[in-house]
Structure formats: C-alpha cells, structure tokens
Amino acid sequence: MAIMSFTLSDLPNADARRQAVSGMWNSGAETMVVIDRGTPAGFKVVADARQQLLMLGRRVIKNSQSVELQTDEVACEHQAPSSGSWVLAPCPHDQACPLHHSNNPKHFCHFSQRIERPKFLKDTKHSNKPEEDAKFSYVVIRRGRRPRTGTDAQSPTSLIAEGHDGPDEQGWMKHAIDWPRIILPPHKRKGHVIMDVCASSGV
User: Fold this and answer.
1) Binning pLDDT at 50, 70 and 90, where does residue 139 land?
2) Residue 119 has what pLDDT?
3) Are 29 and 120 members of one domain?
4) Whether residue 106 sits in one domain with residue 20
5) In angstroms, how far is CA 175 from the centroid of its own chain?
6) Where is the stretch described as Disordered (predicted)?
7) Does one domain contain both 30 and 84?
8) Final residue before a domain boundary, out of 146, 166, 191
9) Looking at per-residue confidence, does 64 or 97 come out higher?
C-alpha cells in the first residue's frame, strides 16, 4: 500500500503533483491512497490524482492488448493480473467525477472526522476544546479490474424488494461495492430524508 497524506496540495505546481502521483503508481503498490484537505483546492488535487491513476491503469490495459494482437497469443498469458485500476472508495464508479468540474464551488467531495486535539494544538489555537472535526478529501485506488457483481436483478436490495429473504453477510459484502455512497450530510425533512449520493452510474 502507498499512502500520500496531505502532500499534493503543498507541492509548488501541477507538474510536481503529476510526478508525485506517477511515483506512487510506479511503486507497484496494489492499493494507493491519496488524502488531502477538505477544501475545494484539496478536493481538486485529489480528483486530479484519481483521474491520473485511472488513466495510468487504462494505459497498462491498452499496452497489454497491443502485445496480444502483435503476438496472436492467448490474452491471459500476457496480461498481468494487476492490469488496469479502479476506485475502491469513495466512488462506486471509475468514470469522470461529476463534482470535479462543477460550477458551484460549494459542491465538492469531502468528509469529516472527529479527532482528539493534542495539547500543543489546544495551546496553538488557544482553546480547551478536547475535540475538533477535521475535514478531508480522499480516494483509494486499486490495481486490476473492478469486481463484477452480477445484474441488478440478482442484487440483495432487489431480492428484498421482491419479498425474498436477504443474503448472508458475504452476499451483502459482494454487492456493496456498487451501492451508492453518501457524500454529504443527509437532510432530514418531514416524513422523509434527502441524501446526496454518488452512484455507480457516475452521477
């Protein structure tokens, strides 16, 4: 696993960030994690890294397919198991992020985690509050192909909607990778709840 934590936004320019992300890919790590500040600028560098890592994965697949055509060999003999790349979290899809080019600056993917303040931070901020909410943007990329979970008719939620019993824990875990992900705090309304989600359709 390779982790780049709160680093990209501190680099001087886009070229330096691209080189850092390329270095992460070239490390050969099966899982790559990019974390940065939960601000529009922090989200942008994470989204750019996401796009670059997916592009590098597609390039590996394209090169593998080119070798297969030239040698007329069986595909599995030439394609490495880790060819390609896919998004493990937070997105349930590998398409372009719809928030990356949003016209609304308030619309960006970020999350919040309550953390304990160390003493030096309390002293620095002149506050005795023991905790604070830290906002961050992140992406987790895996090498390889996105796992297939079957058709919608076979999904656990479809089975339950049709009145069948739900699957066991293994069955839920198998299909959960394609479930929509909540990306903003839910809005509680009278008789219903509004949730902003990122869906496997890419929207």
Assistant:
1) very high
2) 87
3) yes
4) yes
5) 17
6) 145-167
7) yes
8) 146
9) 97
For residue 182, give the DSSP letter. Answer: E
Could you give the angle at which helices 40-71 and 14-26 cross, rounded to 10 degrees?
50
| Same domain flag for 63 and 47 | yes
Angle at 83 between CA 35 and CA 202, to 5 degrees: 55
Integer distance in angstroms from the first to the last C-alpha of the chain? 28
* Structural domains counted in the chain: 2
pTM confidence score = 0.76
Place of tokens 């509050």: 129
CA neighbor of 87 nearest in space, from 53, 38, 111, 43: 53
111 and 188 part of one domain: no
Q: Is the pLDDT of residue 162 over 70?
A: no
Here the tokens at position 170 are: 């293994």
SS3 of 184-200: CCCEEECCEEECCEECC
**In three state form, how does the secondary structure of 119-145 look?**
HHHHHHHCCCCCEEEEEEEEEEEEECC
What does pLDDT average to over the chain?
A: 82
Look at residue 15 in the predicted model and tell me its pLDDT: 97
